[in-house]
């Protein structure tokens, strides 16, 4: 069992994520690569004390990066899109 604060790494605040929050009350987080939908749902509900309707989890592949002649790779990561119940909100995202 992982700690809830280890499952949720950071919120993703992008233009698309801001639109989703305003239109359909969805928030986007970067989560641990080993987390599943159930762990993400429990972590969000416990940390922020909100009701979660659904969770979508997406594996994001790392991109290739070239610096001079050296070719490297960014690491893979996992993204979770969380849909909150109507009327629920997280104070952290309100100023964004």
What is the CA–CA distance across the termini? 32 Å
Number of helices: 4
At the fourth CATH level, what is the homologous superfamily?
RRM (RNA recognition motif) domain
Main β-sheet, in a few words?
Answer: 4 strands, antiparallel
The averaged pLDDT comes out at: 93
Kindly report the CATH topology.
Alpha-Beta Plaits
- How many separate domains make up the residues? 1
Structure write-up:
With about 100 residues, this protein is α+β, with helices and mostly antiparallel strands. The protein has one domain (about 5-75): Alpha-Beta Plaits (2-Layer Sandwich), CATH 3.30.70. It has helices at about 5, 15-25, 35-50, 90-95; strands spanning about 10, 25-30, 50-60, 65, 70-75, 75-85. The strands form two sheets. Strands 1-2-6-3 form a four-stranded antiparallel β-sheet. The chain starts with a helix and ends with a helix.
In short:
The protein is an alpha+beta fold and 96 residues long. Helices cover 31% and strands 36% of the residues.
Topology:
Elements lengths: L3 H4 E4 L3 H10 L1 E6 L5 H12 L3 E9 L3 E4 L2 E4 L3 E8 L6 H4 L2
Antiparallel strand pairs: 1-2, 2-6, 3-6, 4-5
What descriptive keywords fit this protein?
96 residues, 6 strands, single chain, alpha+beta, two-stranded antiparallel ribbon, Alpha-Beta Plaits, 31% helix, 4-stranded antiparallel β-sheet
């Amino acid at each position: 069992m992982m700690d809830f604060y280890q499952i949720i790494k950071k919120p993703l605040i992008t233009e698309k994520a801001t639109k989703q929050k305003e239109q359909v009350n969805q928030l986007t987080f970067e989560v641990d690569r080993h987390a599943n939908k159930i762990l993400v749902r429990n972590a969000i509900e416990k940390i922020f004390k909100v009701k979660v309707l659904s969770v979508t989890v997406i594996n994001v592949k790392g991109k290739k990066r070239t610096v001079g002649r050296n070719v490297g790779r960014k690491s893979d990561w996992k993204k979770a899109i969380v849909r909150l119940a109507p009327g629920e909100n997280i104070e952290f995202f309100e100023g964004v």
